[in-house]
Amino acid sequence: MWAELRRRLWLRNRLAGFLGLWLSAVVIAGPFRDAGEGFSVRHDRVPSEPWSIQIVRFERTRTNLQFHPTLGLGNRLGLGPLTEQVKRVPHALGTPLAAINGDFYATEGTPFPGDPRGLFIADGELVSAPTERACFWLDPQGEPHLGVIGSAFTLTWPDGERTPLGLNENAEATAAVLYTAAAGNRAARGRDLQLTLEPVGAGPWLPLRVDAVFSARVVAAGTNRADQFTLRLPASLRTKAARLRPDSEVVISTQTTPALPGVKTALGGGPVLVRAGQPQASRVLKARERHPRSALGWNASHFFLVVVDGRQPDHSVGMTLDEWSEYLARLGCTEALNLDGGGSTELWLRGRILNRPCYGHERRTATGLVVLERTTNALPTPAKTP
Length: 386
Description:
Mean pLDDT is 89; it is low at 1-10, 22-27 and 377-386. Helix 1 packs across helix 4. Strands 1-2-3-22-21-23-19-20 form an eight-stranded antiparallel β-sheet. A seven-stranded mixed beta barrel has the order 10-11-12-15-13-14-16. The chain has helices spanning 2-28, 82-87, 238-241, 321-331; strands at 33-36, 39-46, 51-59, 65-71, 95-101, 120-122, 125-128, 133-138, 144-151, 154-156, 162-167, 176-179, 193-199, 213-220, 229-233, 249-253, 256-257, 265-268, 272-275, 278-279, 293-298, 302-308, 335-339, 347-349, 352-353, 367-373. It is built from four helices and 26 strands. It is mainly β.
C-alpha cells in the first residue's frame, strides 16, 4: 500500500512540475537567434522561479563541425578554466566556436586533482577509464550515443593470471595502475613499485587506444616518458611483481563493456536525462536539490549545449535533475546527458561566456567539450618547372 501511495505521489509531483515548467516557459521562451555557421542561440528566463537558461544549438548536417574533448592542462590531466582549455586546443585541429564544461572530477585538495570521473577519449587517445557511469561517445561513422560503459581493463602476468587495471588515476591499495604521459609526473608515490614498459613487436602502442590488447616488456624501474608507459604496483602485489625481471612480458587490455571499437571521441557524465524523447527519473546524490546544471543533448537535426544558472536567488536558483530532464525534453532533445554542474557550469561561444557562473568567476575544471570548425588544409602549390 505504501509503495503504491509513494508511486502515485511521485507521478503527481512530476506531472505538476512538468506542467508548471511548460506553462512558465511558453511565456518567456523566445525563438532561436541565428549565430552563423549553423549555430543558433537562445536565452530562456522564468522569473517565477527564477531560472536563467542559455542554449547553444548547431546543425548536425554541418560536417565541418566536430566535437573535441579537452583536458584541464591541454595534453595533461589537471585543472584549468574552460576558456584556457579552449585556448590550448591545437590550431591544426580547427577553430573553437563553442564549448561547455565536461565530466565530474577529482577537485583541488584530493590526491589526483583533475582526474575525470569517467571515460575520456580525445582524437582517439584514451586518457581515462570508464567507471560504470553514463558516457557520451561518437562511433566511427560520427553518430552520437549514450550509455553506461564499464571497464574490463586488465594486466595479464607472464603466468597468465589477470589483475584489474586502472588508468591515469589515484591508485587504491590493491589496484595496478597504468600511466601515460597525460598523467605527467603523478605516477610517483611512496613505496609502490614502478615499472617502465616498452612495446613488444609491431603491435598497438601509442597513443593508447580503447579496446586494444598488446604486449609490453618490463625494462626498468622509473617514471613514465612520452614514448613509454609506467605501471604502478601496490604493496599487495609486490610478491607477484618480484618475479618480474627486465625483459619479462605482460599483456595490457583496455577493453570495455560494451566494446567501443574505433571510438575517437568520448566523455563521461551522468546520469542520462532524456532517452528516446522521454525524461528520465534521477535518484543520484543531490538530484532533488536545485543547483546550476549543464547538459549535452541532441535530436535528429541538432546538437544542444545547455546550462541553467543556480545558487543566485536574484538571478537563477537552478533546477533539480527531474526539472532539468523535463526542460531538455521539452526543448526538443531526444537524448541528453547531464554534465558536471555547480560552480563548473559554463557555456562559451566565440570568446564570450554566456551564463553567470555561481562563484562570480570561472572555476578550474578537469575537462571540457569544444565544438571546432575543422581546418581545411590546402594542397601545396606545385613548384614551377624551370
